[in-house]
Fold this protein.
Amino acid sequence: MDFVRGPIARDGFPAGYADQPQERRAVAEGLIDTLVALHAVDPAEIGLESFGRPDGYLTRQVSRWMRQWTATRDAVEAAGDQGATAAAARLDKLAETLAAQAPTAPTGPIVHGDYRLDNTVLDAAGPGRIAAVLDWEMSTRGDPLADVGLLLVYWVQASDTTERSAGCCRSARSPVCPAFRPAPRSPSCTPRSPAAT
C-alpha cells in the first residue's frame, strides 16, 4: 500500500479545486468510472476468488440498511416535521418491500460496500481522476448494484427537491454530489458515526 497525495472531499472541495461546473462533472464522471472499473475486475484473475462472504450479500445489506434506518427514524420523528414524518412512512414501506423481495444474487464481483466521494482521494493535479479508493473494510464479493445504490443515496442534484437535498439522505460529513452543489444539512438529521455509514 502506498501513500497517495490528493484532496479528500469530506465537507466539500478544497478552495480552488473543482470550482467550475465542468470540473465538478469531471469529478463525478471519474467517481463513476472508478466504480465501473472496480466492478469489472474478475476476482479469480487477481487471486481473490475466495474473498469475502458473497453468499447472502443482499440480505445482509438490506438488514444493515434497515438497522440504520430504524436508528435514524427516531430522530426524524422527534423533529416533528410533517414532511419528514411522511417521508419516514414511505421509507418504512420501502424497507419492508426490500426485506421481502431481496433477491438471492449469484457470487459477483468485488464490491466496496461504502463507495462515495468522501471515501476517495482525488487527483491532486486536477479534477477528473480518482487517485485512490479508501475504507475497504466493508468490501466483499456481491451485487455491484448495492454499491451503485449507496452512491446514489449521497448524490443530490441541483434539481432535487428541498426535502431530498436537505433530508437525512446523506451523511453529515459527506459533501453529497460532486457534480452539482452541496446540500444544506437538515436540522432533523443527526450525524452518523463513520461505522454506521
Q: What stands out?
A: Helices lie at 21-40, 57-79, 82-101, 144-153, 162-166. The longest helix spans residues 57-79.
